[in-house]
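queue> pop job 88
queue> type: inverse folding (structure -> sequence)
queue> payload:
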């Protein structure tokens, strides 16, 4: 090959190789470049809120706060908020005026920062006050092993539903309301029940029943509950959504020490989930949102079979 031909050919090969190396380098950088958010989920929304502490629950990491309106999200009311960092609870007490940052994602909400304020900057101490203390409600509620009194409500089909209808089955009972704004309260209870229904239907078909009772009977009429049930693919044979008169709901809620009250069109409340055995006696009462479907499934298994061996998930 003549030199005049060889030199341009070599030059062309070098240019092509260089271009390929540059392109490969860019591709590797794009593949290896980490997410700008890293591995920590970024809250979808954060709000700065003022309020007054009504109760400090260190054991469960919960602050009940009477708070001001959260524009475009929640009216002024009293709500229990999760605090994931126990250090944030240090030095806080009932009656403290606070400013806190509320972080909210599609599936969770929590106080990410909190600081005390001069008392004049909080919600007046008389506002949104509870008529019964947590200690008083605790003293009045059923204890494990006690028989749960029968009660009658109305299900999502408008039919009467009684606790005694499920005698001989394990009953898991919780409280919700369809307009609840916080993702880790009523919506979490319903999501957990949906998973629990799938688990129990495979292991104990026909031997259990789930019961979700609304705290908002004025709004959550049977047709509203029926639509709500469809969001979770609930099977009416295994999972009932119940409403009733205000007095009927209050009577059932008092059995498990549930606090709830209407404020500015919504419901301020805490959480209760109960397991009732086939004999109609209370087996266990969960008083927060930290339980898992697997945990309840295991306890249902123990209740129905007496087998305490831990099965695989």
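queue> result:
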């Amino acid at each position: 090959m003549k030199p005049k031909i060889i030199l341009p050919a070599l030059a062309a090969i070098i240019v092509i190789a260089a271009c390929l190396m540059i392109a490969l380098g860019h591709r590797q950088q794009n593949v290896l470049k980490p997410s700008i958010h890293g591995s920590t989920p970024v809250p979808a929304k954060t709000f700065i809120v003022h309020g007054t502490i009504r109760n400090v629950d260190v054991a469960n990491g919960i602050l009940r706060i009477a708070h001001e309106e959260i524009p475009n999200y929640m009216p002024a009311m009293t709500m229990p908020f999760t605090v994931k960092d126990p250090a944030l609870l240090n030095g806080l007490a009932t009656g403290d005026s606070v400013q806190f940052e509320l972080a909210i994602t599609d599936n969770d909400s929590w106080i990410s920062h909190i600081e005390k304020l001069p008392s004049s900057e909080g919600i007046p101490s008389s506002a949104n006050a509870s008529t019964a203390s947590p200690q008083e409600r605790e003293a009045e509620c059923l204890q494990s092993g006690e028989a749960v009194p029968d009660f009658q409500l109305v299900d999502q089909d408008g039919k009467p539903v009684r606790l005694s209808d499920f005698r001989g089955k394990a009953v898991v009972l919780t409280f919700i309301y369809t307009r609840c704004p916080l993702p880790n309260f009523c919506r979490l209870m319903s999501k957990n029940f949906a998973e629990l229904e799938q688990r129990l239907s495979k292991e104990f078909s026909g031997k259990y029943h789930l019961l979700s009772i609304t705290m908002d009977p004025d709004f959550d009429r049977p047709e509203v509950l029926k639509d709500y049930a469809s969001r979770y693919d609930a099977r009416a044979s295994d999972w009932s959504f119940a409403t009733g008169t205000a007095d009927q709901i209050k009577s059932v809620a008092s059995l498990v020490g549930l606090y709830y009250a209407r404020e500015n069109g919504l419901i301020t409340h805490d959480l209760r989930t109960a397991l009732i055995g086939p004999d109609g006696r209370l087996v266990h009462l969960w008083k927060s949102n930290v339980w898992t479907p697997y945990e309840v499934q295991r306890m249902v298994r123990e209740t129905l079979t007496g087998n305490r061996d831990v099965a695989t998930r």
